[in-house]
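re: the backbone from monday

yeah here it is again, tokenized this time
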């Protein structure tokens, strides 16, 4: 399939999310999470597929040196698949939630990716962009038919360095905590999820606007989960902005689980149930501790004419993230008291991620 260069990486991510074989650079790849017997057989028509996992995951399996959680993930690792490493066993290699159920793994043989390094990194990037566990089956690109192909460079460019969004709709949206609210919906030019801006009161964009960047949290915002402080932070921010004489803006960003997606966030919860903290849960899954793209929030605020904000946040990275994309940002303290279910989670954010709690 021939695609315009601007969309080849996005199309490859979408195809991978649908369980299809994708060519990325020198490799044909298939999501390890979504593969079934038929799809894996189609990939392995001419050669046995290897399994590419992140270096973080390899470290958990003692296939690489241990890596500090704060360090960027280095090169992925190619795991050879002998006959015994079938679909079920491979899934246990890819998914750390299964570690306690299948503690005996290996022995494994790994090899350097060599000339396939960029393609392997690109395949992991596609899986992350698709909201999948970052692990793929892979064969040389000529060994399987792919539905979409992209260069490694285009895949590695996801997400774009600067988000491109446009205002799609706006309307009045009276809220219980902020009756004088207007909602502005943003659509991503690259086909990504929609994001919302809540304009509360009458914020003046030429002044410093009281704002909050709120990453969507279905479990906390909607279901009232006690594992995090997201719901209380959302409600407190709405009330604070509504009480502010100049009003303000709350951005509701579809970046669940610090950017890893809802299903992967629930996998992280399962790892927390096994005793890992929120940082180690993310990294054991193969993700960074925080995968959010702050260019999205910056683009939304810029489209609203805002250039300076005072953020309701306990996370200095949010201030730095907006500043890195050209906005002036300062912080107003915004922390919720712990409960018996989230005190360890909040302590981890404070001690390992620098949140000011």
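seq for it, each position gets an aa:
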């Amino acid at each position: 399939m021939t695609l315009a260069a601007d969309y080849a990486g996005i199309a490859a991510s979408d195809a991978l999310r649908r369980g299809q074989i994708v060519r990325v650079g020198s490799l044909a790849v298939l999501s390890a999470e979504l593969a079934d017997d038929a799809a894996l057989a189609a990939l392995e028509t001419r050669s046995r597929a290897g399994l590419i996992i992140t270096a973080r995951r390899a470290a958990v399996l003692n296939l690489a040196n241990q890596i500090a959680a704060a360090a960027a993930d280095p090169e992925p690792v190619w795991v050879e698949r002998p006959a015994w490493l079938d679909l079920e066993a491979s899934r246990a290699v890819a998914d750390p939630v299964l570690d306690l159920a299948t503690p005996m793994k290996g022995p494994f043989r790994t090899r350097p990716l060599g000339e396939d390094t960029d393609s392997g990194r690109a395949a992991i990037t596609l899986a992350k962009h698709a909201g999948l566990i970052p692990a793929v089956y892979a064969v040389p690109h000529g060994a399987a038919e792919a539905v979409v192909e992209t260069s490694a460079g285009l895949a590695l460019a996801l997400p774009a360095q600067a988000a491109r969004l446009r205002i799609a709709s706006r309307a009045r949206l009276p809220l219980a905590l902020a009756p004088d609210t207007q909602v502005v919906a943003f659509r991503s030019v690259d086909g990504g999820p929609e994001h919302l801006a809540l304009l509360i009161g009458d914020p003046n964009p030429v002044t410093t606007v009281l704002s909050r960047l709120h990453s969507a949290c279905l479990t906390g915002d909607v279901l009232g989960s006690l594992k995090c402080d997201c719901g209380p932070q959302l409600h407190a921010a709405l009330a604070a902005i509504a009480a502010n004489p100049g009003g303000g803006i709350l951005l509701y960003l579809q970046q669940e689980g610090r950017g890893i997606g809802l299903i992967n966030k629930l996998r992280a919860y399962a790892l927390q149930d096994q005793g890992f903290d929120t940082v180690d849960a993310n990294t054991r899954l193969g993700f960074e501790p925080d995968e959010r793209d702050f260019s999205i929030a910056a683009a939304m605020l810029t489209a609203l004419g805002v250039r300076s904000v005072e953020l309701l946040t306990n996370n200095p990275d949010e201030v730095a993230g907006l500043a890195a994309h050209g906005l002036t940002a300062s912080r107003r303290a915004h922390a919720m008291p712990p409960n018996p279910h989230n005190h360890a989670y909040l302590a981890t954010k404070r001690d390992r991620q620098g949140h000011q709690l």
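DSSP finds 14 helices and 14 strands in the chain. The CA atoms of residues 320 and 329 lie 8 Å apart.
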